What we know:
The protein is mostly helical. About 75% of the residues lie in helices and about 0% in strands. It has a two-stranded antiparallel ribbon with strand order 1-2. Strand 1 and strand 2 form a beta hairpin.
Amino acid sequence: MTSRAQTQKAAFALLSISGLVVMIPAVAVIYFIVVKGLPAISWSFLTEMPRQGMREGGIMPAIVGTAYLLAGTLFFAVPLGILAAIYLTEYAPVNAFTRTIRLAIVNLAGVPSIVYGLFGYGLFVLFLHFGKSVLAGSLTLALLILPVVITSSEEALLSVPKSFRDGSLALGATKWQTIWRVVLPNSAAGIITGVILGIGRAAGETAPIMFTAAAFYLPRLPRSVFDDCMALPYHLYVVASEMFDSPEKVQWGTAFTLLMIVLAMNLVAAVIRARFRRSRSW
């Protein structure tokens, strides 16, 4: 066996080991949560209001509150993120200003979530007087995932071959018609995948909603966007670390429910990406 073949075989072995090292802890965590949390799941647990300070009853307000927050996050983050990506890829000149914008987006993606929480508390809760509410929490989470949406949308737009744009323009279409009818449909898979992954991250965040939206114990559903709400990540944090007499089934059942929501979002992203790739002819 030649030296080059030996080196290639060793590299493949190293990559395989690295993949296993990454997969084993993730699989172990999922297995442990499923084994401990699945027995706690029942129809009453998912649909009833909490009782006796969250020691009995279900987690319906936390599920509904999480859904409201994610819906608001989508409403604010997706249009702004996609429009920003279109500007950066299709209209913005390559200069110091656009390079600064891209650098800022990359840096924002690495900012700890608790910093976003404090920023949202200062801006939306105190300065704009939204109070601790679904609206303030949604805006804060939208800021949190905006860098992910912009980056993934920009990469998806750049993946569309330049010849598609040139062909459309040569046939007499305007630049916006080319973007709307040619570029966006061919980049939809990457954009949708990035959005779903961003929402998956927002669904599991605790720090931003702790300051802006989440309530400790609220056995009712929000009546408007200016009401506070319960949410699964904060609910899990409270019952696992603040309530020492909380039943284990509530803790593990909440963790299992949150895990299933995040995994379902990632599965949807994978299915959409695979479906668009199969239908793509280039």
